[in-house]
Specification:
Four copies of one chain form a homotetramer. Chain A is built from nine helices and eleven strands. By secondary structure, the first copy, chain A, is an alpha+beta fold. Chain A folds into two domains: about 150 residues; about 210 residues, paralog of FGE (formylglycine-generating enzyme) (Alpha-Beta Complex). Chain A has a four-stranded mixed sheet. In chain A, a hairpin with a 2-residue loop joins β6 and β7. In chain A, α1 runs parallel beside α5. Chain A is globular. Chains in contact: A-B, A-C, B-D, C-D. The interface between A and C is large, with 38 and 38 residues.
Chain lengths: ~375, ~375, ~375, ~375
């Protein structure tokens, strides 16, 4: 039932926010991290804008100013708050935004109960679901950033969640050949996965497991952050300008490596997969190890043999359109296509990805310098 | 009684914050505007750092991390949060900070009840009072900025407060002569007012009243924002780069001038003194009117004949040390002296200055481009 | 004979500079444009550093300071002038640098006359030749920028050189299949062309001719520079921030389109291929035309059927390593590999590419916002 | 004779440029340093714009584009090249600009030969002379910057010029009283010296000699560049951000202090007056020494008893209008008045000031962070 799935997803979003104090909902410490209250509002705005306003006859808008506040990047939908201003807004209040969510939910129930109507709108409804799931992951990564950059290092949750232990892993061999790429099933997928097509791959090997913290520490201890030869020119300048010397959230306290986690500041666990590294670091690590990163095509082809789902994995592929990629008409066409420049593809999923959200053909993408997502390294050769 | 005065001042600070929602305490939309919760913490940190820690034997620090968070600019006191990060902190929470205030207040009562001790500390206690009063004014100017730059334009208070009506005013003549300048009384004053000394003034005239909105509108309507000849070179570049065309908080909505006030967005009142203008604008207005701004010495000399207290008034004087200015030893010496470069002096007081806080010898100072304080124009010639 | 080829190439570089005034050799109006005298010195430094110093026993360095001045980006070779400072150096003088060239040339003759030795150094010698040819093209594009951004619009040469006329062109069909990619011959190629390998291509069509000025004018006149829907998000921000409304060097003078050429300011010729556009513009044009840009693999596969060599052509491919790409050891390894991020591949050649320098497998690459090279558009679908 | 004085001044300008290579005329390594060829053109443009065009009937403009290129900051005169672009222009060539000078000189002779006419124009003619003298000093300071920031450290001249030896010096006492300030003679002065008026000064002492390199070295060796307490907040941030640790042009080479001079890199002479320091450094030095800088009024009052003319001396006075300051009408009114904000006054003259150019009432002014002028320190208390 779409209606059940809707409620389940909407509830999970609010569940994620439950441990927050009101103040935690408000701040935006860097441009890429949005205030949690903005995520709560924006995901509701998405349903309001693309479903309720155009398709529910008696829908009453909650507040006409909210379109300006909660539009993220849809030029088609009109003027919007500049992104860097999200953390400057104390209003609408958290309470107002929860009321906005309730308002949207009530009308969405009406819409979803009309089976004839939802049949035609299935695609956009499912896009709304997946959109909200993407923001669930962003909520968790943004909350981690907000609390992990506070000098008090408050914990988000207390319970000990088991981390992902990395087994040593072996290199799997994949023979040269023509392989199918892209989504080819019945369920939902994003437009950037469409255009199922063949690629020709040379022989390659890909490691079954991710790189561990212990392995990454060797890279640090070998002085690789001070040796230009493993780095792209841009990566090297990024290292020097930002004085990067370890993954994000790592702190060396009196000679002991610690890292901030959602449970607070903890000693580093050596057999966990390394996390919160940029593409530049992933590439440099692979170069230092005498290996390389896999392409997204190699990853997808080998995916059934890999241990994946722990971390988003940087690939050696730029985010570009598949052959036959078609941008949708209207605002929905702005969802993916307009980002296909200067970003790198990540494959897999992470421990904060919503359940059931990813799949082998899923294409995540970020700028090569970003580290606040749960990003890791898999080697190929 | 110092103890009564302490409570009165501390209560007023919290009174000012009463109309705020929790979210309003958190944001920092520009570097000069601090989050209200930071003001609440910083004023308490001031008493803790300069009185409780050094002078109350059994004082227990509330939280050792707070020194890093709430130190504003005192290098002597150690490392501190960079100023632009104040709005990135969701913790300490508003509740935590009110508890911090209570903690400090409880111990301050102990200290202030010890009459022998307070006799020796009178100067620094009174500095703490005046420091908190300065932050009371900043709280109001910062709250106005936070709410006045929100696209929803929420009101801070509902009650209609009478504004300051500007009477036409006349030019008062002051004859050439030697006049005394600086603080020369018994009560409290800041170190920058000390060094009472003589100055020689030529004949001058100074207007009894401030420039009104009606007068300033003539300047706008005459196209003065588009004519370089009234402006300093720096002022003209500031106008062009920031596309300045009216005072801060003024909006021309469908041909009607409105301004944001603490009561919300209101139509402009013509006989109110013009407010929220930069020194550049004050200077350009005077040049356009064929007049000039008074120096701080002219202002102080004529002050008993002026109608003042409505608005801080830009003068033609740079903020420089008086003859015989002495910087205090230690952190307190950082209070005023290190700002004596590239700032202009303002005299008077404003409608949001705390009662009894200003006096004729009071020297306020800001950078010439700033507009978020309640600043106005008085003409001389 | 290597020695003859050396002289021929070195002479052409100086030939290109002949029309310059001394002052033209010195300036660097933007970071990407180097002063011509820097190109003259740097190309000599390349031979000195990679051939004379390590391989000619009795070589005497011309000036030990020149390593600092003329090293471009080779970290292996030591400290170097920051790139933005190239235009701040009045010394070494133009005369000094010509003497430096003569000095290097004299010793290079000695080296090249030693056949036994050159046999082992063939690869690096040819790299030096091709390196200098790349700078010959940069000399012409940089000179064009220097003179074309001068308010006096001086001409570089007077002679009328025929421009490249674009014939209407047809779409050539290429069937689905496995095609070989990469350099597979005997002569010289860069390391980024190596790793000859197969790719699988779907059916596609590619136009035999480039997009003309007349066609591009339709795009302008249709208001495409003011309509976000054809642009990448980054491209759209680039358009707005830089107020882009036409290709580089185009000026609309009293309603008439002109463009700056090496012969000075001229009326725009409609049947010439459009030139000096960014990747963002190439992509937006293709989107507006209902087509797309070819990938570099599609381009290379179809190259024998295309009319190419007029303009470098933006492709839809990011600059990434081929399967099996190996970075050379030492400084030479810095030639290409470290740039393989956030750049797009261009294929073909331009009217200012040195004779014999390009080939179908040649991979040129620039950041997507750059326009000072001779860049054009070919459509695919 | 005005005509003789004109020639003498114009010749000195060209004499100053004689040791330059053509390339030295072109570069602009920082925004405040203009290319020598720009100074040559701009000083000619001044005579052309304010004398020849309005007052010589048959004057033919040399090149109509030059107004755009050589206008410095006169908004009244129309559009102009942005200041940071001066070093991006290879044309007009040095030869062209010398021809421009000859052209202007020829017509100026005609004008100056007409005694009736020059009688009325005396003021603006003398302004032109003094303007060119100011640029003579700027030529020398800019040439020093251009050559002194070149990694080859070329000398401007070879001859050994005796430096200014600082005698130990004593503190001169000036009694409290009313003193006259401002220009009050017959000859030429700038408008910012006018408005001769009285000031009241308290008792003060002022040192007869400037601070020497030996004295300044003590300040460095005492760690004063690493101790915030001597600095303005802005000065301290300037020190940290720019990693300032010594005066401009000082280099510590293997433990030996050297400085770049117009004769090339030389060992530091201890009994020379310290030079090329910012106002921030002058102020911090005085604070460290337990003294202060004099105000411009104290300086002028004591000037007949001081040993001055070696170095421009930072004062504790901001650059503000004198009582009764009147801005001239039209472009000439832009000469001084519009800079009266955020700059500090310097008094005296330097070894590169043109002969006869300065006087006791002369008010020089620069931003507090600037160091490329010949600036020194005199103490008061």
């Amino acid at each position: 039932m779409l209606s059940d799935k809707y409620l389940e997803i909407r509830n999970l979003t609010e569940e994620i926010c439950r441990p927050l104090k009101t103040e935690d909902y408000v701040v935006q410490p860097v441009v890429d991290v949005s205030p949690p209250k903005w995520h709560l509002g924006h995901t509701s705005w998405f349903f309001e804008t693309f479903l309720l306003k155009p398709h529910l006859k008696d829908y009453t808008e909650f507040d006409p100013n909210y379109n300006f506040v909660f539009n993220s990047y849809y030029e088609t939908i009109g003027a919007r708050l500049i992104r860097t201003d999200r953390g400057n807004l104390s209003r609408p209040s958290v309470e107002d935004i929860y009321n906005y969510r309730k308002h949207v939910d009530r009308y969405m129930q009406v819409l979803l109960d009309d089976e004839a109507k939802t049949a035609n709108l299935k695609e956009i409804i499912e896009l709304g679901f997946n959109h909200e799931q993407q923001h669930q992951e962003l909520l968790l990564t943004d909350i981690k950033y907000i609390l992990g950059h506070n000098p008090l290092f408050p914990a988000y949750i207390d319970s000990e969640k088991p981390f992902f232990r990395v087994e040593p892993g072996t290199f799997i061999e994949i023979p040269e050949g023509i392989y199918p790429i892209g989504f080819n099933g019945d369920g939902f997928c994003f437009d950037n996965e469409l255009g199922s097509h063949n690629v020709f791959l040379q022989d390659y090997k890909i490691r079954s497991s991710l790189v561990s913290n212990a392995e990454y520490l060797e890279f640090i201890n070998a002085g690789a952050y001070k040796n230009f030869e493993y780095w792209h020119l841009e990566g090297w300048e990024w290292v020097k300008q930002n004085q990067i010397a370890a993954p994000l959230y790592w702190y060396n306290i009196d000679g002991q490596w610690c890292h901030y986690t959602l449970q607070g500041l903890k000693p580093l666990t050596l057999d966990e997969a390394v996390c919160h590294i940029s593409y530049y670091e992933a590439h440099a690590y692979a170069a230092w190890a005498g290996k390389r990163l896999p392409t997204e095509f190699e990853w997808e082809t080998a995916s059934s043999k890999l241990n994946w789902g722990e971390r988003w994995e940087w690939t050696e592929s730029a985010y570009l359109p598949y052959p036959g990629f078609k941008k949708e008409k209207g605002a929905i066409g702005e969802y993916n296509g307009k980002f296909m420049i200067n970003q790198m593809v990540l494959r897999g999923a992470s421990e904060v990805t919503s359940p059931g959200h990813s799949r082998p053909s899923y294409r995540n993408f970020f700028h090569p310098y970003l580290r606040w997502q749960y990003t890791g390294i898999r080697l190929a050769q």
